[in-house]
Design goal:
Layout: H1 2-22, H2 31-53, H3 55-60, H4 66-90, H5 94-150
Helix pairs in contact: 1-2, 1-4, 2-4
């Protein structure tokens, strides 16, 4: 399940960060883990939104696992606040730069998704046109054949 995997990834990254902080490592050494944590957090939110909007969830009731998912999101929110405080204390201004970078990355991902959706639609349209042409040619050939058989030419 993507939700559980993302939660596990966020928890693992947080543990790496927490261990590094407790060992007194410099902030620059843990930025990769911070990025993994924040990306996993976004993945969890996106997966939950997809689950919430899923028609299957509406049919099935969607209540199974809701409390656990809510608790996981709350835990991630608390961990994010701790990370934010740590980064603000150790590297002034870096959190704000990270927020700006993250917003730009979100815009780029949205544009990439939109482009992928357009490519998919174009491919489906090409498949439909090719199928229509093949069906039309097949219909013409079969009609000519049966016309020849009917008129006793073959």
């Amino acid at each position: 399940m993507p939700i559980l995997e993302s939660i596990a990834a966020a928890s693992a990254a947080y543990e790496v960060i927490k261990t590094a902080i407790n060992q007194g490592r410099e902030g620059a050494g843990i930025i990769g883990a911070v990025g993994k944590f924040l990306n996993a957090e976004e993945d969890v939110k996106e997966a939950l939104q997809k689950k919430k909007n899923s028609p299957l969830t509406a049919i099935a009731g969607g209540e199974e696992g809701d409390w656990e998912e809510f608790q996981a999101l709350e835990k991630l929110r608390e961990q994010r606040k701790e990370l934010e405080n740590y980064i603000r204390e150790t590297r002034p201004g870096q959190w704000d730069r990270w927020q700006q970078w993250q917003a730009e990355a979100r815009r780029q991902r949205a544009a990439a998704k939109k482009a992928a959706a357009l490519r998919r639609e174009e491919m489906l349209e090409q498949i439909q046109v090719a199928t229509g042409i093949i069906l039309a040619i097949t219909t013409v050939v079969v009609s000519i054949y049966y016309l020849g058989v009917y008129m006793e030419k073959w």
